[in-house]
Amino acid sequence: MSSSIFARCSSLLLAVLLGGCVALPDRPVTPVDLATALESRLAAAERRGFAGQLLVMRGEEVLVKRGFGQIVPGQATALDETAVMPLASLTKPFTASAVLALAAEGWLGLDEPIGDFVSGLEEHWAEVPIHHYLTHTAGLPAEIVNRAWTGPVRFEPVGRDIFMDRLNQFQPDHPPGQGFNYSNIGYNLLAVLIETVAETDWETFLAGSLLNTADVSGIGLLRPGWTDDQLVVGRDGQRTSGHFLDQPMLDDGAGWHLRGAGDLLATPAGIAAWWQSIQRKTWLSQPWLALWLSPQVSDPYGGEYGYGWEFRESSMGPVIGHTGQELDFTSVLAWYQALETLVYINSANKRFRADRLLVE
Fold it and tell me: Could you tell me if residue 2 is inside a domain?
């Protein structure tokens, strides 16, 4: 999962990597221009080992939805638009949506201390308002690392009680609201909040209260019942790391170092349906949808952060989105507001970072 905010692309590096430069036209860019340039860039990357997916939408209209490479390196099955890939930190907008959905129903307030709802927290965490956990301003570090665990850090199948005990061993890096630390732990704790208030597991609440209500399928971890032949295998050159569900899990989902911060999987069709629900304003009720899509705090990287979203400027105007990284997978979602265009890229090859494949 990404701990930086939309790393700036290097045109020279991309030209070397892809064997040529894919340029936007020397005139006002249209959504079709952007879609064409991205498809060309990823096709060039595919010839050098890229495997992944591209979705480009103008409003509710899908302009491009396709895959590149193979699901498993060296095997014939194509990685197409029906394959399933991890969202990594693109999970965070969904987690934030779930918190806002609870707020919309009156179950909690964003300015209320999280300890009013979650028991077992030390006072210095219990007194922090939920807003600060959503915006990475609670003072938490990025990760909890168990050095005795030899697998991928966030895939340790740790239960909620152990997670809470480990969290309580930390002291805030700064007073709430007086600093910005991108923190996966904060979103793990928000998943605890969701499960405590909703009295069900996080994925079940997401499906029942948001995805199903908005008629969105093709997003989830265990509930969709993904099969092995749908799941893309991660890779770094000739080395493979398996697919996401090859990793250790708890019976009801990801361990608590991953849950709510980076545990969802999706197809491009799922992302497209989700984005259409956002455009139709059926994902969240107002004013919560507008609040969810609004910046809340400044970050150290020259942009802003909201409730699960990053906000930045580009050559094509303001962008709302997020990046993600887990195992050998990287992802990026960028909504170019002036163009009313969404771009989603997911990469299964560590050597081709998704956010560096954007054309800006």
Answer: no
Q: Among residues 89, 54, 75, 137, which one has the least CA distance to residue 345? A: 54
Mean pLDDT score, 200-215: 97
CA distance 282 to 295: 20
| Average of per-residue pLDDT values in the chain | 93
Whether residue 6 is contained in a domain is answered as no
Q: What is the pLDDT of residues 297-321, one digit of tens each?
A: 999 999 999 999 999 999 999 999 9
**For the chain, how many residues are written?**
360
φ/ψ of 335, rounded to 5, equals -105, 105
CATH number at residue 252: 3.40.710.10
Residues 316-347: tens digit of each pLDDT: 999 999 999 999 999 999 999 999 999 999 99
**Tokens representing 33?**
């221009």
Number of structural domains the chain divides into: 1
**pTM of full prediction above 0.70:** yes
Domain span including residue 336: 11-357
The answer to whether residue 5 sits within a structural domain is: no
Instruction: Flag whether pLDDT at 164 surpasses 50.
Output: yes
Is the peptide bond prior to 287 cis by the omega test (within 30 degrees of 0)? yes
Burial (CB count <10 Å: 0-12, 13-18, 19+), residue 239: exposed
